[in-house]
Amino acid sequence: MDKTLPMRDRILEAAAEMLVEHGTQAPMSKIAARAGVAAGSLYNHFESKDVLIRAVYDQLAEIINERLLAGDRPELSPDARLSCYIDDYIEFIWNDPKRATLFEYLSNVPLVAPEEMVRTFARSSDYITELLRELRASGWLAKGELICMGGFIGGAIRNSLKWYRIHDRPLTGADREQIKNMCFNALRAPESEGTRFLDKTLPSYAK
């Protein structure tokens, strides 16, 4: 734990680590100990565990917005912006393993109500949905639910990089391009006979 961080940030970092390790069973006293603060000081910042958990979500959402959206360049074409988004996503997940683990955990084991999850991550979710909508309008994007496609991008990147870590492999530039190309190939509209086949198999709401 970096003791030079402000107390509130130390508490949030400790809470994130303890939630991944113990879920909601993590005692506030142990979170305080991990952060190197007195229990009373913790409650001065967060009046309950529920408030603390929501703050962990909010901080993660802020970091995601900063890492993935701050560098957006609206003057680029939609497919170029998607390429930049995927590059930034890979960079974020690979170079910040602690938050990558937290993101993976909170995605698989939500600790807040679904509507709270939607609200917390609305900015990044709305961004990728709107970008995919532009790609759909240009004819680049395959048919399907936009929200599902946005979730696919993040899930594909996180799961791919997880296996690199499990096998203790470095991530090369070629690996990054392969992951991006897999995302692109999965999302891009088919150019020939496959389009008509896809139309027949899609449910009506996805056409």
Automatic annotation (TrEMBL):
One of its GO terms (molecular function) is transcription cis-regulatory region binding. The keyword Transcription regulation applies. Residues 27-46 bind DNA. PROSITE patterns: HTH_TETR_2. The keyword Transcription applies. Keywords: DNA-binding, Transcription, Transcription regulation. Residues 5-64 form the HTH tetR-type domain. InterPro entries: Homeodomain-like_sf, HTH-type_TetR-like_transc_reg, HTH_TetR. PANTHER family: HTH-TYPE TRANSCRIPTIONAL REGULATOR BETI, HTH-TYPE TRANSCRIPTIONAL REGULATOR RUTR. This is TetR/AcrR family transcriptional regulator. It comes from Paracoccus alkanivorans.
